[in-house]
Batch of 2 targets.
Target 1
Amino acid sequence: MEILLEDLKMRCEALRTTVARAKEMLEGAPQGTLRISRRGSKVQYYHITDPRDTCGKYIRKENVDLVKRLAVKAYSQKLLRRAMRELQALERYLKVVEEENPDDVYEEIGEIRQQMVEPILLSGKKMAEIWSKQAYDENPYHPNEKMYETRRGEKVRSKSEVLFANNYDEMDIPYLYEKPLQLKDGGCFYPDFTIFDIRRKRLVFHEHFGMMDDPEYRAKCFRKIDRYRKNGIFVGKNLIVTFEGEGTILNMREYREMLKELF
């Protein structure tokens, strides 16, 4: 809902600009309308000033500026009508949703009633809160390699993963570490981080590949990314990938800027 509201507000701003520009274009516009007559390759223009006159007065070639001004007037009038109609509808909708968003009803009824109700619609924030508390089986692969502790107290496999986890935590981006992901092809991955995107109410996965200098490791990484793709998870859409290797150092400042843009 949040991302939808942001998009609608941007649309409203674009429409307000359009309305203002269309009104400017109509200032000083000539009276009447333009009639265009086409006969084969020949085009003639007529100026209609009396609504009862369906033909209008022929506009000579030397008065081509009048033709353009009448054309601009017709375009601006039509654009203004449609833009204002859409803008008014969007402003009414935004007012209703911002004042009485149905996503917020469950949180507004109080804890006691919440215990007796199965929610139909939840806000992204509430969904993230429930999602973050779920229990899941940890990755059985080499649990002894989890030697580094995050600010939340969980154990991860590398110093880079500590940085990622701490950034997510500091920026209030809900995440779970190595949560199992059942693939459509029947397999199972344990993404380094599964992130709940509050604004879009969706899951995003983050894989960090830290030994890209190793050819065998690198080939394995690309196969993994390709398998994600075959299961409907795409880099740049719902999969974040980061890399490290000799001469390739993580730029956490740029990473944080990316997180701000995404979430």
Target 2
Amino acid sequence: MAGSMARFIIQGQRPLSGTVGMTGNKNAALPMIAACLLTDETVTLRRVPRILDVQVMLELIASLGVTVGGRGETVTLRAAQLRRRRLDPELCRRVRSSILFAGPLAARYGRAVLPPPGGDVIGRRRVDTHVNGFRALGIQTEIGRNYVFRRRQLRGADVLLDEASVTATENLLMAAVLADGVTTLFNAACEPHVQDLGELLNAMGARITGLGTNRLRIEGVARLHGAEHTLGPDYIELGSYFAAAAATGGALTALGALDATTLAVLQRTLTKLGVTWTAAPDRLTLTPRQRLRIRQEPGAELPTIADGAWPAFPSDLMSVAIVLATQASGSVLFFEKLFESRMYFVDRLLDMGAHIVQCDPHRVVVAGPARLHGTPLSSPDLRAGMALIIAALCARGETVVENAQMIDRGYERVDEKLRALGADIIRAE
């Protein structure tokens, strides 16, 4: 896997065409790795993406004493005997998902010590939703230089989440499966990766109902057992490659299938930018040379694309959608509701010649099409980094994207896959 301080060198204006396979969902893989702590038997995960965030999570869990094995996209995990309950500070600084160890460690082992989690700096990410939920279940939290979670009596409870946080929902799910009695989570997140985690836990012997809704009922059990599970597809990666192909005037076939709801969520927004595709049971096909045009909405002066909790458009696709809009005819308002720093990367697009007005930290207006030109750039976070690659693929001349390891955190072999589609992109260390 790529090391640190890498950069991508990209020659633009080459249409992308070809076929890609759907990889496993990054945001499902991370909590599933943590979930193996809930049993002393082997958990086998299939279609695990080989990305930097997954690598760090596997290093973290191995440092606790979990046996990690497998080959390729299959990972085996066995938490038969843990050596420690304290997570490595350096590894925790590299991933936000380290917080997901709190629930299973405290629930099964009684204690967890975590440094503050790292990851992308795209806005304030709260932990009070985790803390309040844990407290209701009988897990007390001390917050200082470290987060210390201590289990007293793990008991079921009715928990109303003050926000539909994905990681808080996942953490509380993993704790509640071993609690005495019944837990009900209200205002729970219902993203596909949350559903996927719930399906793994049920395969391990948990009793969770309501997956796919914002009301989850968990009947606690005394113990969980091993299981095998295949991860669902990464619709964020798929949306990114579709945006890249459409923005460059290319064509793309993605092998695999999305469920009807996920497909509808992507189509509802991307069709506003003029992107269309056909769906078959085993593939999605983006036709070539699409006419990208902002679709006007009845009665609206300016079309709007806003993100939000599922099934709204996912925040992780806002950055690539903004780049796609720079290549479409018309104007559109993007409203980022979840993270106050998500939009800051548009300064790089302005340097490339994009027509963007930043209204405030949460809203930008994009007018297109714009003729982008290459320039030196640096990737500020994972999703903005992929968006900058797409912008570079559209631009005239050469673009250098520094800090490429940020993109490696969530996209598997991105430069190799893009080269296979016709992109002129190389990685330099």
